[in-house]
Amino acid sequence: MQVAALQMVSTPDVDRNLATAARLVAQAADAGARLLALPEYFCLMGRRDEDKLAIAEADGAGPLQDALAGLARRHGVWLVGGTLPLHARQPGRVRNACCVWGPDGRRVARYDKVHLFAFDNGRESYDEARVLEAGEAPVTFEADGLRVGLAICYDLRFPEHFRAMMQPPCDLLVVPAAFTYTTGQAHWDLLLRARAVENQCHVLASAQGGTHENGRSTWGRSQLIDPWGQVLACVDQGEGVAQAELDTARRDAVRLQLPALAHRRL
Q1: Could you give the residue numbers annotated as active site?
Q2: Domain holding 235: CATH number?
Q3: CB within 10 Å: which end of the chain, N or C, has fewer?
Q4: Which residues of the chain have pLDDT under 70?
């Protein structure tokens, strides 16, 4: 199966972001991709965290969800819709939700980000918990016979999140993200390759990558990694598509020659 990570440099303008997403989806689908992933916050990189509240949608209904369902149906692909804000139980909060649509345009999965990012190095600081309500559990789904697990950005730092999706083992882990330039430069590639190697499956990471109109800089480097930790395709900075073949024979060979998943004791 051909899979593709779509990299964006999203703006505070939802309509512009949707247009960019549609163009990248069409580009990847025309090149043969069957499963595609948009980045975290593909729909909005606002000037304030609270801007997410203004575009939040009810679960299953809204222009953002309708647009993504339409793209999946139009191109006949599995579309991992990055993330978008959905209404939360707590007032003044939203869920950072990763929804997936099948080739017929029907939604097949929803995962809400469990681990909320906080960072302060004295020059830049973020605290997602000011606006986000955390999700509860990892989510997997089936796509053309593949078992696919979902994670979002900061989840990448919690290996137990990925292990929870490995019974039975996943064939592909998809990680939409908007890593800061600072943390991405230090840890993004390292963490992605570690998750691929320890779980012996492919990892598809779709990222924000560039300097945004709100002044924020994101690391980029959207990529597909194989179960041995080899990078098969990568986009460094700016908009683009990292696309390559997900080879199940490679997965099987890695698990046969080094059966680490079968050796687990804890």
Answers
A1: 40, 113, 153
A2: 3.60.110.10
A3: C
A4: 124-125
